[in-house]
Amino acid sequence: MQFLNKKAPPLEVSDWLNTKMPLTLSKLKGQVVVIHAFQMLCPGCVMYGTQQAKTIYESFNAKGVEVLGLHTVFEHHDVMDKKALKVFIHEFKIPFPVAIDRPSSSGLTPKTMAKYQLRGTPSMLIIDKVGNLVLNHFGQISDMQVGAILGQLLEKK
Amino acid sequence: MQFLNKKAPPLEVSDWLNTKMPLTLSKLKGQVVVIHAFQMLCPGCVMYGTQQAKTIYESFNAKGVEVLGLHTVFEHHDVMDKKALKVFIHEFKIPFPVAIDRPSSSGLTPKTMAKYQLRGTPSMLIIDKVGNLVLNHFGQISDMQVGAILGQLLEKK
Amino acid sequence: MQFLNKKAPPLEVSDWLNTKMPLTLSKLKGQVVVIHAFQMLCPGCVMYGTQQAKTIYESFNAKGVEVLGLHTVFEHHDVMDKKALKVFIHEFKIPFPVAIDRPSSSGLTPKTMAKYQLRGTPSMLIIDKVGNLVLNHFGQISDMQVGAILGQLLEKK
Amino acid sequence: MQFLNKKAPPLEVSDWLNTKMPLTLSKLKGQVVVIHAFQMLCPGCVMYGTQQAKTIYESFNAKGVEVLGLHTVFEHHDVMDKKALKVFIHEFKIPFPVAIDRPSSSGLTPKTMAKYQLRGTPSMLIIDKVGNLVLNHFGQISDMQVGAILGQLLEKK
User: Are C151 and B156 an interchain contact pair (Cβ–Cβ within 8 Å)?
Assistant: First the structure.
């Protein structure tokens, strides 16, 4: 786990789903932001990461935590396109906004993924109320640890 | 759970993946056959059904149980096509052959699904050594119950 | 796991709890017998073994499987006596008869435990309809495997 | 769940185990205190509560959280005495100090249990750095929620 504690760079998003209007990190300032970076056909995502993100949403959305999905497709792009993702969001009953990471012109890794140096999916990013990146975690992370980080960030002035 | 105990009708398959050659139930006579009917974007499938089918394969394949996947798409056909299914099989490391249920000309439910009157996905079908359908179960079923049925059918003359 | 396939020796029991009358393996002939050897203060027992034994009881008792507990105390005898065991049976809602393994005159290991060469607790013993010991397993065993053994033994003539 | 936010009353303890010296809440001021109130023969305790308390200890003890066990026996006192509890602490590898709730002269409920109006076991008490009772929870509570409370209290000035 990398604790970075520096300014979270803007998300590069080609499209937003499951939200009435596009979001930006700067618009979300004042809130704690949890980003669930995933691919819809990644087993670790669908078996625990996405469920955990839903639990975070249910437990903390009313308390000042914004949860966002970030679909960071770095392989098999043709079968994980926007149309497929819409079905995934519907079938898995995703309750939070989902951003599609902007494809890079050259190469497989999309832009936000590259900028945040994500190591794969699922990854969890946590950004504090003033916009600093506090957590950049690849793979599984315990509910207790996630709870502790969010409890701390919500309390922080 | 419906115990039918009558002849399992032939599978209607448009394509086979993850196997060198097409299979038929009649070719498999003498073995117990477990069919995991699923859709690659069905949460109940990816979160437990498919994992259970893999466990059955690992535990019983060497003992006379053939495990087959049956991709019975009855909704969102365009994003669960053969190309997408191939990625799913690869990413989820499915070790057993997967049949694609033959689409019906009129309507959404594919042919094998209709013939077996499956109620949805995941469904588990178990066929005994002489070709009779012994179990047609929709939804979750305990590992202990699956084990008991397989132990019994393997022992049966 | 040791498959022994020879005559299961008689249980050496100092007391029976949770049953109207004492049992013997010979009285149970014609049924499959599962023995859950445990100690009431053994973590692996209370966290999974005893629960699994209860599940076996619920799933198979009506189908010809007798489940027995065997309290095989080999350490801390004074705090796992009959009085304490009665409370354990009550609090953990054990639905099956529980035998107290007969203490040996010299040494810590009780008599049935020694005779069956149990390696510790929890251990699972499975005895077939004609009285042969089929399984003598120390530690965790999967529900699917237990189911398979029971399904097979119930089917066997 | 009751949030009380008033001064946590002193613990009434007849004995301390698993610690070199007796503890008091006033000695622990400046730290967040988690009290796992349990009975050694309570299924809900041994199956999840005690495990969760161990996880809290492992995750937060180095960060300013003191975890204490409180053995609040209100039934079957004779088989859950100090000698039996010592075996339990040893067998279940409890890493934190355990207090024995002082028996009341008249009645079954011990003194701390009565004072804190605990509804049963397991119960979790959380006390903040200045000694206020923040949580008094009976039964299961999610890891994420526990983490959030601890993260918040650790951050609080």
Answer: no
